Amino acid sequence: MNKIRVVLAEDHHVVRGALAALLAKEPDIAVVGEVADATVLLNVVKALKPDVLLLDAHMPGHRVLETVQTLRNRHPELQILVLSAYRRREYAIGLLEVGAAGYLLKDDPQETLIQAVRIVARGQQWFSPRVMEILIKSASERNQQPISELTKREIEVLRLIASGYKNAEIGAKLTLTEQTVKNYVRRIFRKLDVETRVEAVLYALSQNLVSPEDLQD
User: Fold this and answer.
1) How far apart are CA 82 and CA 64, in angstroms?
2) Phi, psi of 78 (to 5 degrees)
3) What residue segments make up the domains of the chain, in order of their start?
4) Are 59 and 10 in contact (CB under 8 A)?
5) CATH assignment of 143-216, given 2.40.30.170, 3.40.120.10, 2.120.10.30, 1.10.10.10?
6) What's the pTM?
7) Which CATH superfamily is domain 4-135 in?
8) Which helix (H) or strand (E) holds 151?
């Protein structure tokens, strides 16, 4: 069995040690590296090539949004799971929009961390349930566009977006060209009055068009 290779980036050695010990108990997860200094993070990821980076959002020595975007540009297959103390909508959405695969709160239950690592390792997104509640509520309040404006095909595309599929993958599943999928995505954004895939999915969640399980299963 191929284990999920994880690098931990956390400047507090006690917290980092606890996370490493927790993950080490899982037979399908291997902690292959630990980073205490954000200034060496890019080099460590380049050298170790982990499947998942568990990244403390508040490590000194870096700006987390820029770090996530840089890592995703350099290592498209890397899944980044952000560990944060904040439940603010803007903070979570900002990280997701630059490429983070998941957002975990530091006081979430331990079993939630294990679940999140496994889910993002499969290429899917994961949100802390408490953050998800805030994001869905905010999306519903900010956007009053009727979901009924979407066609059946647009709903199919939106559900696949929510499940983490890229445009080319959506095209393959629906027997459409990638350009056709891009056209559908643009129409969905226009009808829902949103600008990003994250916002579109959050609004779909707020309208019960998709469920959190669509993002995580």
Assistant:
1) 9
2) -70, 130
3) 4-135, 143-216
4) yes
5) 1.10.10.10
6) 0.73
7) Response regulator (3.40.50.2300)
8) none
- Identify the residue with better confidence: 93 or 167: 167
125-181 pLDDT, tens digit each: 888 888 877 777 766 666 556 667 889 999 899 888 887 788 999 999 999 999 999
CA atoms within 13 A on the CB side of 6: 30
Instruction: List phi, psi (to 5°) of 170.
Output: -65, -45
127 in Cβ contact with 217 (< 8 Å) = no
Whose tokens are 């290429």? That residue is 123
Secondary structure of residue 6 in the 3-state scheme = strand
- Give the single-character DSSP code of 60: T
Tens digits of residue pLDDT in 114-127: 999 999 999 888 88
For residue 164, give the 3-state DSSP assignment: coil
- Count of CB atoms within 10 A of residue 74's CB? 11
- For residues 154 and 161, give the distance between their C-alpha atoms in angstroms, rounded to a whole number: 10
- pLDDT reading at 216 higher than 60: no
The Cα angle at residue 48 between residues 46 and 118, in degrees rounded to 5: 110
